[in-house]
């Protein structure tokens, strides 16, 4: 590994930006936190003061610094693509939170800028770095379950996000299922070629009124012929529910949720265990560190990053296909999703359920 | 409960008929095994000799006996409906193995005969009497998980049946998924109104050559708006895999497989447990006893049987809808399945995958 | 296997006698229930009427019947030894509930009568036939965990027996731990050479007032040098708790309790499972059938029975040693327990705690 | 909380000293790593260079620094007491790894110095900060299981330490069981008044030749009358085995081991899970951070530290009592262990087994 540490700036000082900055400052070997910026300068300064790095409100000041090797883009989705392009033009490697954008034209523009600049771009699909999912992927890739036949993903949030967030999220498929589409591709190591989705508004009528759904079941067909399902809900009363199971010709592998402790309490009424971890930042804490460590290590060594720009685009295609499937009430092939604007009003989506 | 025991004859001395006869003879309070018949008279006589009851090869001899109160129909599917009708005409109560028939016209004829005779008819959906599924049903019915939102059923056989059986089985949906369609209705206590199914031939090419599929994922939409999926495979290398999970507004309930023992072996390579029970007769042994006990108790007391003729018809409708969904590549509503002959060649089904 | 079924009479129509009679009548291949007797004739007649066999109040009538091959002794402990001897003199094989007696002289007298008559004697240590314990034994015997080093047995009743029972039970060690002493010998396949026991009266002061203890921890030293502990309590609020764990040079094997179903309920408060089976007759139902099947098969084939008279004696020696250990506050070797009367007043035992 | 960060020096740059230094530098809010010293100066300098703090080979240089508020003592056991005393004289608060010393006179000398100086002393019983044990303690303290009756602790290392370490360790009870004695006091919140221990040399004859044992079972009697056992082995082929179970009048609470992931692999041979975490630094990683965070927070706020000097002394008394119990083959009360030198040659211990 090269001597010099990788100098990384963070753009965006919201919840995930603060987390990444903290992790970079203390827990990623070979990384150096170079600074943090946020359009809300006060938020950036609070982080900068605590971690002892420069802070500001303008991304360009970071991108203009010669000592900055790479940036983390942790802003809201609508600014991802233009920041990627700006960083590419400035010759900085980029780690960007998912999704790149909510439409393919914008994504393709950003990826073109990346390609033209020859920088590295990693997308923040952090669950790929979680020990449970990684073990499933390794079992599939290593042949431990033979040829994959059926995938089942369960992804349930503990509680719905705010309605303000729902309104700008792009809808359940682009905001939540996108992680599961990525996981489907990651676990089986192949492409999803067709989806069929049904969706409903069962959790909170206000979500429906905001034009979105909160419950969905998506059927997948993979290139190899394997099948799959994704179960999504915006609410699991018992906590964050994140599981995967793959059946193959030689067996199956399945994960369980992570709990804060292993203690089992037995009383007259039955046997009890504390609920699974509730908060995604706690559940996936290690994965956030490991994805940055992998990014830093890849950039320093010149190796390809583990989650590419193409990996950022593919789940968006599948999310758009799922949306269309709900609207049109039929299975939709991935190759039906083209350059044209694919996003109809989310109202239409929920009207279709 | 009345003094007199219910005198029950068994029609069919195959695997399930022998099991039922044995259970009736020894383990069902209030029942008296009256005799057994099978077109293969030798098979019936072997059972009759062992259990000390008359045996023969003609169902009519059982149906003609004044001392026989009820019959169990354990023959191949194609004779179920006519035997139900004959028993109804003879005034005998009937317990019949599933399915009643593979088409609705035949089923409706049998049910009409039952109604005309005023006898009781129970269908052999034994899994309703299994302790695991019953606990899930009780949790749903008792409000322990609130309003149901997503059902997930996993139903995997340890190994495919013989090709001879596959050819006459009616296909995966009518032979295997039919149990899961019944379970979906039982667990949620409401009707499935629409299905979408994808299917594949992944386990054994010979099954595809025989015109059937061996792997399927079926999406369900319930009358209440709840969603569901059924995962079927003809092969699970580790044994018989039979699980259910229901997410509701207040929580979730999920079952695990039954194992022959609870021992956990920890060695350098990891932590190991013996595989789940492999054979359905062993896995569901108690349910076979309990369904007969429930039948005998209901008939003796005059109460309605717990699995009615209508409960036998509904899953056939859903299986036919699933077949059509695979063929036509679209979601199919249950109310699209009418009196017309719905069964196309299974070749067409597999051609559609 | 010989053609003729083994004709077996049952002596004692209490809870366990009724169970055995029912099992013999219906569920043991090769067995024929010959009759049942009880000093309370009405209890015997109730069973006899139900199962269609002769009933009476005098064991001698059973022992005098030429058509009776074997008897099950299910009476109270104080009559076991004399009934064994009487059956031996009558040339009947014997299955006797544990313990043979509460003192060694009486046991040795019974075993001498058995030896003189050349009959077979099996002792009712039913847990040896339980699938969980059997799997542990097989792992040890088959070398799956290497050389055994530490055994841990947990044996907790759901609730204390009646005080009337406590007073005649012989005390915790002879009534309850005796099963665990047998299990220790069975699982490791070797003898316990020394015990050290501490005991207390923590559950119910009335048990202490009756001269007994209700909580005990017993340390074992095996002939091979392996160590062990037994945990006993007369009360586990959550149900019948019966577990074993063995650590060996290559790993460990451990069992869990059996539950009525596998369902797991997740709600806001946590993850919940129904408590373990509460009642020993339910928990060990299969073992009661299997021990009788093994007895009948052994006697019919002339093979040695699986739980011998010596297996009935050894745990009594260990229970007496544990009692003495509590009284004298020191480890006691099994070979210190001789022919002399070893049982001091249980008052002394509890006084010693 | 006060503004100023607590400036902490580390004495000892071995495995645990390096870990603590790293944790202090990056992961303890309110702490400032002031420097590190080790008699092997090179080891200290390696750490100091990496973390950017001064390093040296002389503890006195740290103790003489006015800007140092507290020290962590991470040296070998034989220097703990004198370093505690030196730090106390210098007015520095102390966090010291366990045990304080292997004999009570030395411990009492160190504690007297601490009392005279009025500094705070925390002992490094890190397991008290582990989420599993803490949940058990909370259940007991919160009355969730009623009045405690039986404690069972399992503590098995994955593999024996080096013989060089065994020779200076003070023996199994002072080196390994000492953690469990602390845990017994912590979980039940009361004192152990009597121990009885049996021990053996089953894992490696070289350990016996070095005068130690590698397998032990210790029975505990608590002040309240509750009972307990501790199971120790220097080897568990499957990894680090660290579990606790407490039975109380209202129920029981039990922990399981921590695994690197939750994945369960089912194949024809059975159901498999990856072994538990193997290495104590990995298994207890969070507890090492949390104990330092608690130390720093207590010292900064002036609150009592959570693991006092008395908590460091008590388990040594119990370990000495266990040693004597093995040598003399009898239960030994804690109050029999006095000021006199209690440590006989470990040879004698192993000779006694």
Summarize the structure.
In chain A, 39% of the residues lie in helices and 23% in strands. Chain A is of the alpha/beta class. In chain A, the strands form 3 sheets. The first copy, chain A, has a 7-stranded mixed sheet. In chain A, strands 3-2-1-4-5-6 form a 6-stranded parallel sheet, sandwiched between helices.
Overall pLDDT score of chain A: 94
Q: How large is the radius of gyration of chain A?
A: 21 Å
Order of helices and strands of chain A: EHEHEHEHEHEHEHHEHEEEEEEHHHEH
Please identify which CATH superfamily of the largest domain in chain A we are dealing with: Dihydrodipicolinate Reductase, domain 2
Q: Tell me about the biggest sheet of chain A? A: 7 strands, mixed
CATH class of the largest domain in chain A: Alpha Beta
CATH architecture heading of the largest domain in chain A: 2-Layer Sandwich
- Strand count of chain A: 15
